[in-house]
Amino acid sequence: MTRRELRNFAPRTFWIVTVTAAVVLGAIVVVPQWLSKQARLEVLRSHVAEVAQLAASVVDGDLHRQLLDRANYTPGLYARTLAPLVRFHSADPEIFYVYTMMERDGKSYFVVDTAASSELAARHRLRASAYMEPFSVLDKEPDPDWLQRLAAGQTYVYPKFLHDEYGYFLSGHAPIYDSQGRYSGFVGVDFDIQYYLAQEARFRAISIGTFTAAMLVALLIGYLAARYDFHINDRIDEQYRISVHDELTQLLNRRGAMASVERAIAARASSYASILVDVDDLKGINDNYGHATGDAFLIRVAEAMRASVRDADICARLGGDEFLVFASGCDLDAATEIARRILARVHTSEEASRQPDFGVSIGICIASPPDIDFESMYRSADDALYRAKSTGKNRYVIFDPARVIA
Fold it and tell me: Which of 82, 126, 222, 291 has the smallest C-beta neighbourhood within 10 Å, fewest atoms?
């Protein structure tokens, strides 16, 4: 494929199709990614809930219940209650905080905190909450009934990462029960946002790669559509060009000439010239020298016409041996000069130089606004052409309503 072929596409179609494809493909990529992100958060919440339940199961509920009363507090009781949670926390370094709490008069207080133990093996630098330290209420608690839900035996996980004085955390809480099945506070596990972001980073790379691929596919679809649109329109244009051109001479045919003349007249020039060119005795040429010779001479006449006019002038083969030149902004002097050039070029052509009977006759009509009517101009030029043929051929005649000038 050449560089020229690569450039042959419709820019407007390219951008419309590319943008449309980008929107559709982008939605196909982004919406599932967004939905999967929500699903991954829900999976993480389920995981946090399971971890909270496991943490609650390792707590000695009877010891913890004793710590709910400040009067029972001793360092030894605190250490014995804390020990299994420290081992649990150390076994899962992804957990940020592990602690227990109690609820009293609608407020929550820390009971034990694994960060208070020197035996904790954790990757994070933690600040321990003191025994019976009040819990700092969040600016906007997502569920004001969370304590009541825990007391009712439910495991509670925040719906999203929330900010407190220690950072951004996703927290899960599960109730603690003593040996008699009594509610004895609850355990809390916190996962900081970095844990979540580390997992999301892998999916983000996939998302970026997928979105980039979708945009490249959109560009490719836009380019192919633009190429196809250009190809189709080019074929249509080519078929139209063929339909309005004469196959032998490649000049406009009658249909193409009439359309071009209408546009030229609509442009409102100062004057117009209608010049009819007719091959002298084409039938005799075909009979005496063959149709191939006749066709070759018709091509020569067409070439002589093209070489004698301006680029904007209309040249056409109306049929058989009849040709037309229609020129805008062309006065009598310019029209007669065109006729002289055509006669000179036809007369010096190879066929005409060998055969003196190879020639053309020309009729000229000039009109100026507002009296511009092609049919009238054509009849007048045809009348002048008839006079050119009847007075010796191989010449031009100018139509005049009062007299004929030869």
Answer: 291
- Regarding whether 273 and 169 lie in a shared domain, the answer is no
DSSP conformation letters of 305-324? HHHHS-TTSEEEEEETTEEE
d(CA 384, CA 122): 111
DSSP string spanning 171-236? Answer: EEEEEEE-TT--EEEEEEEEEEHHHHHHHHHHHHHHHHHHHHHHHHHHHHHHHHHHHHHHHHHHHH
Query: Residue 104 is encoded by which pair of tokens?
Result: 């009293």
Give the HSE-up count for residue 205: Cα atoms under 13 Å, Cβ half-sphere: 5
Domain identity same for 278 and 367: yes
Tell me, rounded to whole angstroms, the distance of Cα 182 from its chain centroid.
Answer: 65
Q: Could you count the other beta carbons within 10 Å of the beta carbon of residue 267?
A: 10
Full residue range of the structural domain in which residue 176 is found: 15-198
Does residue 75 belong to any structural domain of this protein? yes
| 206: in domain | no
Pairing of strands 272-279, 107-113: unpaired
- Measured CA to CA in angstroms, residue 219 lies from 3, 18, 21, 212, 283 at distances of 18, 5, 8, 11, 60
Quick: pLDDT tens for 104-161: 888 899 999 999 998 888 777 778 889 999 987 555 666 778 889 999 999 999 888 8
370-394 pLDDT tens trace: 878 999 999 999 999 999 999 888 8
136 inside domain: yes
Number of domains observed in the structure of the chain: 2
- 187, part of any domain: yes
Q: Are residues 49 and 162 in contact, defined by beta-carbon separation less than 8 angstroms? A: no
pTM: 0.51
